[in-house]
Amino acid sequence: MKKLIQKMGVAVLALFALGSPALAEDLIMARVNAPFPEAMTLLQSAISSRGYTITRLQQVNENLARREFKSDMYRVVYFGKLDEVRQVTAAHPELIPFLPLNITIFAEGEQAILVASHPQALQQFFPDPALKPVLERWEKDMDEIMDELREGANS
Amino acid sequence: MLLRLLALILLGGLGCSQAQADLNGAKLYARNCAACHGEKGTGGIGVPLALPSFQASISDDYLRKTIHLGRPGRVMPTFSSLKEDEIDAIVGYVRSWNSGPAVTYSDKPVQGNPTHGKQLFRKYCVACHGVNGEGAKGTGVTFSRPRDLPIMAPALHNPGFLAAAPDAMIKATLMKGREGTPMVSFLKQGLKEKDIDDIVSYVRSFEKQPLAGSAQVLQAEKPVIVRDSPYDLKTTVENVKTAVTTHNFFYGRVQTLEYGLTKPETENPKQVIVYFCNISLLNQALAIDPRVGMFLPCRITILEKPDGKVQVMSVNPKVLSRLFNNSELNELCEQMKQNYTAIMEESTL
After folding, report:
1. Which of B32, B260, B325 is nearest residue A55 as measured by Cβ atoms?
2. Would you state the pLDDT for residue B150?
């Protein structure tokens, strides 16, 4: 009886611990409760802290402004890890058009919006089992980066 | 003693599980909904969920089905990976903004004359909802640009909407309107309840009509467009640069894939990317959906394989329409696919 009750207690506690948040479909998006410059700094830090190298900051709004099109602050941040890029493109050169990984960030008033595609979604087009762990790792990192900005800036 | 402990855990758990449900609802909302609907439900591209008149006119079931089914072609995705309890948690959180009583609607169909309803629809509804109920233009515009309406007129001729909204809800919305949005009460506009029933029956008849253009997204056969080049890498790169300019783009830069990842001298020179752009087209694309920046600037990869053969490749832009669930991108994606294909074929001719 004592053991049964102990087991029930553990089961009850385990139930409380369950409940991981689910993925949004199609795109990974986050609203960051910080102005664009601050969100941009946080984003670069979150990317770098996961071992990625930022290869380029595409300045979209500046390019639009040169032709007198109006736009809010808008960047595309490209990043990657050399060994991973070499590994996946050696086996699947058709992945090159999807690389390096990137996150789009743009201002919405005093907040910022982040958008990225799900790296894991590439699995449907490239069903190689050897690719799976890399795509899953990218997916996890993307999620963590988004979470860090979403929650970090809000805390 | 153990029984008391277990009882305490269970009782505490009831409170905790409620608190956890609330917490999860807030977290799930922040993760899945806030980017479009605003962190406090004030709206953006998405409906301002916290708007009192919206809260007063929708049921939990409508929210649940909308999250589950989305709005095909109209940006709101299907959240099919969310579990039922997670959807319930989000609904609970969204409902925490509701100060009034919960609304429920009968599933009973409203009986009306759809032919007369169509005439009334043409007179009163098309200005906002479109001739065939396809919804207002401009889905996606509002992320980063000023908007002139507090809410975009939704697509009524959309399988997601029609499955989520019972006749009774459509009727109630027509009768009462939604304060704070352009949706007015059509009783106050002089229509009789019978007229409103007719409009509802016409809206319901969309279910039997072919899928509206605004609910369609393109299906991409393959994610990447590839062409073999008969030329060596260097010549192919030059050909791509030339072809890009003849198709009304300017090429911005030529880099290897590994640019920035390693020292220039150790980059793999056999994976080259030509980046190019047409600023006017870029502005047009961002006006349709500001999120497309993630696939900009345009780029074509030139690759020399280990056997010496050269290929050119690019993302198939038709993938984007489905990815963004935005039918307004369809035409642009088709156009971009043609541009990419033409550039690649010209440079490998």
Report:
1. B260
2. 59
